[in-house]
Amino acid sequence: MLELLDLRERGGRLEPSKLEIDPATTETVRSILQSVFIEGDDVLIELAKQFDGADLDGILVTEEEFARAEREVPPELRAALDELIERLHGYCGRQVPTEWWDEHDGVRFGEIVRPLDTVGCYVPGGRARYPSSVCMTVVPAIVAGVREIVLCTPPQRDGSVHAPVLYAARRAGATHVAKAGGAQAVAAMAYGTESIPSVDRIVGPGNVYVTEAKRQVAGFVGIDGLAGPSELAIVAAGSIDPRMAALDLIAQAEHDPEARTFFITPEPSLAEKVDAALADELTSAGRREIVDQAIRHTRLVLVRDLVHAADAVNDVAAEHLLLLLEEPSAFLANVRNAGAIFLGPWTAVPYGDYGVASNHVLPTAGTARFASGLRAADYVTVSSVLEMSADAAARYTPGTSAIARAEGLVGHARAMDARADEAGPR
């Protein structure tokens, strides 16, 4: 049923997916950004009607709506979300860089760490609702010490926000929740409106319009990255359960019709077993319209051995990597490019989606070659600090001044020479 890629003989390579934005989308987003910049809340209300079918009285969620949402969320789901938030606090608490200082030859130097003042978190609301994404984006900001956290998510047709999303937002620590989705939400967070404050950085995944809007405002504000379709690579060998691998492939396919999945193995018989198991499991899969489209992008990949498998993994640089191997830690030593890595048969990727020692905002479209998943460290800045004594100025100036003059920067040299002259001979 699945397409087979045999890389054993021809020495082929797996190509990462690429984020490609249609020019028409680029122009649509540019127009939306400009409109929000000029007209603010009025455009957000107009576009909520156009794209979400919602008549909004206001942009920001009210205290009454938060209270109603808490009543509507079942106790067991409240408890599960509370546990997710607690896990993320423990996980993210290890990620913030620490301030440090040292002194050498009359120079006191170090780095100070400061939280961003305001961040914007985007939480999608199209094909599914994601209280988990609220936690994944807001909690690291809280741990980092961010003062103001704006969360934007599309409204439902009745003008409300999904109750578990609101519950998660309040429990995680969001300062404001705005009923805004798509490129217009990104514009509102980047530029500010009457209701939504402008932010320093925008994080969180979204559809192609959200992604293109983030690309266009990057530099004006910080962004976490540009999200493409979700990805999973599985490397398997030996006596694994084909059904578990098939369920993992289907779980990833649920995300998006364009989701990309690869089952990489040196054993043709195992590929056949997984193919058969996938056909069986699809009969009881949910979200079939999405899954059926995504499964068309799934590939069974045959490699020569596990060394070749590691090459394939590093080439595709997938968002998620699952190692169904007898010694996954040994294989891990050869992995360079992956967003999040899951070791062994018990570690299903969805555990990471729900905050078991991972964040699910991860690099896609091959960007794991140079980017990492969302971390608390992404919500701080690090500034270098130095303080020099007169002795240090005299000591360093001959060398630094010589370099400045060689570069033609006489003003730089004179500023340093003046310090050395003032310090006098040492």
Query: Largest beta sheet: what is the strand line-up?
Result: 1-11-10-9-12-13
- Into which percentage range does the β-strand content fall? 15-25%
What level of helicity do the residues show? 40-55%
The structure class reads: alpha/beta
- The N- to C-terminal Cα distance equals 81 Å
What is the average of the pLDDT values? 95
Order of helices and strands: EHHHHEEEHEHEHEHEEHEHHEHEHEHEHH
Computed Rg: 25 Å
Major sheet size, sense and barrel closure: 6 strands, parallel
> What is the CATH topology descriptor of the largest domain?
Rossmann fold
Return the CATH architecture of the largest domain: 3-Layer(aba) Sandwich
Which parts are unreliable, with pLDDT below 50 for 5 consecutive residues or more?
A: none
CATH-defined superfamily of the largest domain: Nitrogenase molybdenum iron protein domain
Gross morphology: globular
Count every helix, treating DSSP H or I runs of 4 or more residues as helices.
16
